[in-house]
Design brief:
- The structure holds 2 protein chains of 2 kinds.
- The radius of gyration of chain A is 14 Å and the shape is globular.
- Chain A contains no helices and 12 strands.
- In chain A, the strands form 3 sheets. In chain A, strands 2, 5, 6, 10, 11 and 12 form a 6-stranded mixed β-sheet that branches.
- By secondary structure, chain A is mainly β.
- Helix content of chain B is about 0%, strand content about 55%.
- In chain B, the strands form 2 sheets. In chain B, strands 2, 4, 5, 6, 9, 10 and 11 form a 7-stranded mixed β-sheet that branches. In chain B, strands 1-3-8-7 form a 4-stranded antiparallel β-sheet, with no helix packed on it.
- The relative contact order of chain B is 0.33.
- The model of chain B has no long low-confidence stretch (mean pLDDT about 95).
- The chains are: A mainly beta, B mainly beta.
- At the A-B interface, strand 5, strand 6, strand 10 and strand 11 of A face strand 5 and strand 10 of B.
Amino acid sequence: AQSVAQPEDQVNVAEGNPLTVKCTYSVSGNPYLFWYVQYPNRGLQFLLKYITGDNLVKGSYGFEAEFNKSQTSFHLKKPSALVSDSALYFCAVRDGYNFNKFYFGSGTKLNVKP
Amino acid sequence: KAGVTQTPRYLIKTRGQQVTLSCSPISGHRSVSWYQQTPGQGLQFLFEYFSETQRNKGNFPGRFSGRQFSNSRSEMNVSTLELGDSALYLCASSLDSAPTDTQYFGPGTRLTVL
């Protein structure tokens, strides 16, 4: 069955430190993977996506994500966290075998402390 | 380019009433999807429309319905409202319905059912 898992409900990191938000996926065909961020009372903002090619994908606001096929993971990273990065982060996979449906993870709340 | 717009932003209804939410996609986008977001269930897919046809449907009761117009604008309707329908309803548009397409989200409509 197609699914996305974000194993951590919350991640706490100090400002200036590197951050990682984890995501693993399960999909029948080729995975098309996305990261979104949501600020309070707002919609989701697109950060980056992996379609094919280089396993390291660079996105908005200094975020990047590494696709690992053997571990079926697509972790979101940033070398130096900012307090303004505090938000809810969603990983999503699009299933090309299932009418291109989007499957979203449960979300990870990132807290960046000054 | 203007982003995805949703109207109204906030709505308060009582049980048994019906409600219609509206979504205007990014200009040129032909696919519109709807999601329900609640603290307990996270992001749940409602349905997707492409060129006025429903392409995908999530696991929601028939009280939830939608449509898409020839200009790609979409509406969703919820009849016989229940307390559990209180949620943030998000609309997302994409250029087409290919697996590589990014969905861009609107700010959402916050529905409160009393």
